[in-house]
Amino acid sequence: MKNKDNDKKSFVSYLPRFISYYKPYKGLFAADMFFAIVIGATGLAFPWIMRTLINEVFTLSDKGRIVEILIPAGIFMLVLYVIEALAMKFVTSWGHILGARIERDMRHDLFTHMEKLSFSFFDDTSTGQMVSRIITDLQDITELAHHGPENLLISLIKIVGAFVILMNTHVGLTMVLLLFTVFMGLFTFFYRKKMFRSFMDNRVKIANVNAIVNDSLSGIRTVQSYSQEEVELEKFHVGNQEFYQSKKNMYTVMGTYHSTNGFLQGLLYVVTIVAGGFFVVRGSIKPGDLYLFVLYINMFLQPVRTLIQFNEQLQQGMTGFFRMCQILDTDPEIRDLPAAIDAGLLRGDIKFENVTFKYKDADEPVLENFSLDIKAKHAVALVGPSGVGKSTICSLIPRFYDVDKGAITIDGIDIRNMTLRSLRDNIAMVQQDVYLFNSSVRDNIAYGQYDATDEQIIAAAKQANIHDFIMTLSKGYDTMVGERGVRFSGGEKQRISIARAFLRNPPILILDEATSSLDNVSERAVQESLDRLSQDRTTIVIAHRLSTVRNADEILVLAETGITERGTHEELMARKGEYAGYYQIQFDGLSTKESA
């Protein structure tokens, strides 16, 4: 269940969580910070050396003495530059690697959590939006994780060091500088919320564009077959325009932020020169010191500018992190109870005991006080019109959803008291819409048991009547199936799915409209495989084609009121009730088609 308080959490409350990702890399982080200190210290040293040379060395009357001092001073400065360059190399390379590792870990945590989320979450969330969160939203994390602590440390060292030097030069002018710096800091602090909102809106809009693109390209065959390219283009145009407008607003906010800070920095120079002029007139500061002071202001403002840029980077990175945390803080509705047991290998006795279930946004329950008893190794078929709960029953057995009331037991054990892994290890599903991954035929079959040997995969394919077809392919079992298996027919994809189930070899089998979208020739080939697969297993079959359920041990006719008829095919036909009516309609329709 989604944590609704997540949006109300303060920005700062996420920082400890962000910092926790540095823990595995404490050594690398410490080294990065050490070299950041080196960079900051050397940056302070150069102006101080130059000031000393100008004030103490170049004013000497003995030119020989000046040369004697300049040579070691030059060598010393060269050494400092070498040290700074080496430190910069480490920070630039390994600092970025540190950030990339943290980004990798965050993306891993996010994907791992997504894999655990319940079906109800994905019912309400598009794939494109999820892809955007796991890819786009985390792209700025590397820069933030690397430059964040490092820039903060270097800037603080330079600001404090420069402030001390400026105080030693002239206290009054330094107070003017401090006043402007505080004002810029307050502006940045209060403006950050506006920046965060603009970045967040931009993330949402690009996620919507990703969702539109994913949806349109996934259904490109439907789009083109119905000549609806213009409709999809209009959807994309609207989403793309909203993203552009969001980005435009974001750049406007950023422009105001940077221009205001730039103006304040320029104003600081003007005020410093004017105020310094008054101090020169009053004799409290020498013209040369005023010139040096102006130079030191730049040294002071450079890290201030870095911090101003860092604030923008912080808002961008933390926006992505915030959206990541929104997902991580979404609890799976279906999860193991603390005392859940490993169910082991089950026999397959399934009972629904007064089960009531309603989908989250539905007004009425799909099932109400529903009871059902399926004996182990029996085949039960569920028939009836759409919307009476056939697929819901099949979704409740592997706990894709939890019942609202009542209980479902397998072998007398409430499925909520089993671990999800052990429960689902006992179940295989063959559905109407077969999903094949964009990998080889071998990998797709092995999805039923990923550590299966080649011999086991081939045996499963033979049982599913798909081996001979696979051997006609150019690369056999190593042939790539294409995205969603586009290179194969419906019957071929279905038999690959059946091979998966053979490989899994579970005691419970769920067949959800497994042949409904196939032609008669493909249906016969697939049905032979399914009949073989169903032997000695508890099998629940959903089918609109009643010819495929004639051999079931029991057929249940479902309506909105529950089970209206039950029995074998012969018993129900003899009863001449609803089932016989459904069967006669299909038989007459089939006879008409064949005669035509």
Helix content: 55-70%
Shape: elongated
Gross CATH architecture of the largest domain: Up-down Bundle
Low-confidence stretches: 1-8, 590-596
User: How far apart are the termini?
Assistant: 54 Å
Q: How many structural domains does the protein architecture include?
A: 3
Number of strands: 10
Strands ordered across the widest β-sheet = 6-7-8-3-9-10
Q: Note the beta-strand portion.
A: 5-15%
Could you characterize what this model shows?
This protein has 596 residues and is an alpha/beta fold. It has 19 helices and 10 strands. It has helices at 15-19, 26-57, 63-116, 119-124, 127-134, 141-169, 171-218, 220-225, 229-282, 287-328, 390-396, 420-424, 441-446, 454-463, 467-471, 490-504, 520-534, 569-575, 578-595; strands at 350-357, 367-374, 379-383, 405-410, 413-414, 427-431, 508-512, 538-542, 554-559, 562-567. A hairpin with a 2-residue loop joins strand 9 and strand 10. Helix 5 (127-134) runs antiparallel to helix 7 (171-218). The longest helix has 54 residues, at 63-116. It starts with 14 loop residues before the first helix and ends with a helix. Mean pLDDT is 83; it is low at 1-8 and 590-596.
